[in-house]
Amino acid sequence: MKNQSIDKSGLGSLGGVCNTHTKIHSEALRGCVAPSLTTYKDVVYNIKEYQQDYEIIKANKDKAIHKKRLWSNLDNNKLEYYGLTKTQLDLTDKKLAIQKSFLNSSYLYDKLSGKRIPLSDLIISANHSPKRYYGEIQNRVNTLIGEAENRELTPIFMTITLPSEYHPFKLHNKTLVKNPKYNGTSPREAVKVLTKRFAKLRNDRAFRDIYKDERIYFRVNEPHKSGTPHTHILYYVPKDRIEHITKAFKRLFPQKGNDIQLDLRNAGAYVMKYVNKTLPNSKGKKKSKVDRYLNAWYSHNRITRFSSSRTLAPIYLYRLLYRDYSLKALTRVKKEGRIKCFASVDEPDKILEIFDGDELIYMKNENFSLEKHRGEL
What we know:
Layout: E1 4-6, E2 22-24, H1 40-45, H2 47-75, H3 86-105, E3 106-110, E4 116-118, H4 130-150, E5 154-160, E6 169-172, E7 175-178, H5 187-202, H6 205-208, E8 216-223, E9 229-237, H7 242-252, E10 259-261, H8 267-278, H9 289-301, E11 306-308, H10 315-321, H11 327-335, E12 339-343, E13 351-356, E14 359-363, E15 368-372
Parallel strand pairs: 1-2
Antiparallel strand pairs: 3-4, 3-15, 5-9, 5-10, 6-7, 8-9, 8-11, 12-13, 13-14
Helix pairs in contact: 3-9, 4-8
């Protein structure tokens, strides 16, 4: 009887097909036993289910490792803010410093004019061009709200949190202590759980009769002090659906910490308050220690700060055409079907030309090349 080894793809190589006992020999899953596949037919027809079991085992292993490391850091007094250690902060700062050095020392070189444009002057990033990034977010929020008000929609504000098992710590006498219910979910995976919960609300019967263009939202992800994320959503809906949505929200999210607010006097200022909290780099002053850890929390865990409904023109398109179109105008012509994008067959993400009707409004400039400044890292 031979063992059957399975690689990380779940396909592996078959050392025998009858009465085999399967073990996964991956370093990450050492000691985890996968389900038995006893015949060739089992292997061929059940490999999808086998792969699903493999992924569950791997996820549970990752959770156990994350939980052990996090609680060990608490025991050794290494945790600072948002579940991060000083070492993790330093590593994140080092990574961002390397990125900044690359952007400052790399240029787009125009072969015709001989001009060099630093990449740092072009990029829009929460870490490397926070003021430009903040301006773009403000533009998105204002345009979304303008679209909503034109449709005479009513704002509601929601906060969705995760139950106790997603929180590694509890607060006891102003001190963090271990939460015995914690399941080991990392902040990055917890954001995915929040996204699924939000999707469950959007797919509820309370939303079914609302047209897509009458469901406009802007979402902000933010950490608790323990590092577990929660999410805030500014949602615009028809006024006659608010009662149904409120009931659905309370039915789906009954636990403490979830909240829905209906009386918003200045919805734009309300949501921008949360945007400001998540962008400490845009404040234009020296960051506090807490601000540094907050910013590192997003980078270290690779968590997106903001997202929104697909009400507006895609942001990648706006960044190509912002000199000629406001976000509002671009959204209008995009919905009218006037915008046509043409990309490379070999590189479908590489846009070569954009037309507004029959008018060419963008062409990728092949005269530019990326250069590294001599003497720089």
